[in-house]
From TrEMBL:
One of its GO terms (biological process) is DNA-templated transcription. This is LysR family transcriptional regulator. Keywords: DNA-binding, Transcription, Transcription regulation. Residues 1-59 form the HTH lysR-type domain. The lineage of its organism: Bacteria, Pseudomonadati, Pseudomonadota, Alphaproteobacteria, Sphingomonadales. PANTHER family: HTH-TYPE TRANSCRIPTIONAL ACTIVATOR TTDR-RELATED (PTHR30537:SF5), HTH-TYPE TRANSCRIPTIONAL REGULATOR (PTHR30537). InterPro entries: LysR-type_TF_proteobact-type, LysR_HTH_N, LysR_subst-bd, WH-like_DNA-bd_sf, WH_DNA-bd_sf. GO terms for molecular function: DNA-binding transcription factor activity; sequence-specific DNA binding. Coiled coil: none annotated. The keyword Protein biosynthesis does not apply. Belongs to the LysR transcriptional regulatory family. Pfam families: HTH_1, LysR_substrate.
Length: 297
């Protein structure tokens, strides 16, 4: 194998956690995959993987090298696509990440359309409620639901969502419904930590005032868990509107302090500027724009 093939083999082994599975995905023999990585290690003078009879895992040097390899090969693939022309159809693997609930409701339908239209395209959809680093984790497009700070990433704004407070009818029947932001201090609060803010504050109104410091009885890092706790009658939860739309429609949750909703939050598709010419990324962005033009909750 040449150096580029060795790098692709290295990445495949890291992704699969197995030489056998990596070889199968690359349509080469297991021996060829093992030799490619061994040759790469010899050329670099470092060990990239710790190998046992039961597992294959990256060394610290291997993990650092993997990040650079992903970025370098992505740039080379983009250059090849530009030479083939902007009319090239999507092919190979597109990697997309999104928050769990938003991805299930709004990104999976976009992916389904793409897979139906382009038989040579594969998609790896990572649904996770944390911010991932695109280059380091091999991500082509990420959904960010937030006001973006300045960065080297490009962003396409496709929608906006609201921050809402909800509680179960049973909870409100027992504890009453708050009529002002300050009355929240008298209630049991559930915090989804991505929406709590750096100072554990909830802001209200068009200007973000008043702002109250919250003291939640339950803090979770999963929107699904926070919503489930609210449905069970534990307390009042702040989420994004799309996350509780089904529960509100079904009567399992009821909005509170609707008149004090803060400004909506933008939904952005972010990507590295060098990836915009990729047919995979370009087609995903175009398809997503059409999907979100219909509006979301």
């Amino acid at each position: 194998m040449d150096r580029l093939d060795s790098l692709r083999t290295f990445i495949a082994v890291a992704d699969k956690g197995s030489f056998t599975e990596a070889a199968r995905s690359l349509n080469v023999s297991g021996t060829a995959a093992t030799r490619a990585v061994s040759s790469l290690e010899a050329a670099l003078g470092v060990t990239l993987f710790m190998r046992t009879t039961r597992s294959v895992r990256l060394t610290e040097e291997g993990a650092a090298y993997l990040e650079r390899c992903r970025a370098a090969l992505a740039d080379l693939d983009d250059a090849a696509e530009m030479l083939r022309g902007r009319t090239s159809e999507p092919r190979g693997t597109l990697v997309v990440t999104a928050p769990v609930v938003f991805g299930r409701l709004h990104i999976l339908p976009v992916v389904t359309q793409l897979l139906a239209r382009f038989p040579a395209l594969d998609v790896r959809l990572m649904l996770i409620d944390r911010v991932v680093r695109l280059a380091e984790e091999g991500i082509d497009v990420a959904v960010r639901i937030a006001d973006l700070s300045d960065s080297a990433l490009h962003a396409l704004r496709v929608a906006e969502v609201r921050r809402v407070l909800t509680a179960s009818p049973d909870y409100l029947a027992k504890h009453g419904e708050p009529r002002s932001a300050t009355e929240l201090h008298e209630h049991v609060l559930i915090s989804f930590d991505q929406l709590a803010g750096a100072n554990s504050e909830w802001r209200f109104g068009a200007t973000g005032k008043p702002a109250i410091r919250i003291a939640p009885r339950l803090t979770v890092n999963s929107a699904d868990a926070a919503i489930a706790a609210a449905r069970a009658g534990l307390g009042i939860v702040r989420t994004l509107s799309y996350q509780v739309a089904e529960d509100i429609a079904a009567g399992r949750l009821k909005p509170v302090l609707v008149d004090l909703e803060p400004p909506p939050v933008p939904v952005n598709l972010v990507f590295q500027g060098s990836r915009r010419s990729s047919p995979n990324v370009r087609t995903f962005l175009d398809t997503a724009k059409l999907h979100f033009a219909k509006g979301i909750d």
